[in-house]
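Re: that chain you flagged

S.,

Sorry for the slow reply, it's been a week of failed gels. I finally had a moment to sit down with the sequence you sent. For the record, here it is as I used it:
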Amino acid sequence: MTAGAHGGGTVPLDVRHLYLNRITVIGSAPHGAGDMDASLRAAAEGRHRATIDRIMPLEEAAEAHRIVAAGEGLGKVVLVPPGIAPQPAAPRAA
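Prediction finished late last night. Pasting the structure tokens below so you have them in one place:
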């Protein structure tokens, strides 16, 4: 989720990346000051879900960065600090 034109009004877009990774882009113009509140409320209620590719210990941050930079996997790579038990990722929908 993003709000605002962080990169300006025009940004370069390689649509092949969208197609090959089955990425959906949904956008709308803001309708009012409550839009951000509604989005944050939806996130807090669990209505926005991130696809998690893998969960790795923080000590493997260099490898995690390599995985992301190489475009391997599908979804987010989550780093877990020492002493925190990683939570299993929810199964992916078929």
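What I noticed first: The two ends are 23 Å apart (CA to CA).

Talk soon,
D.
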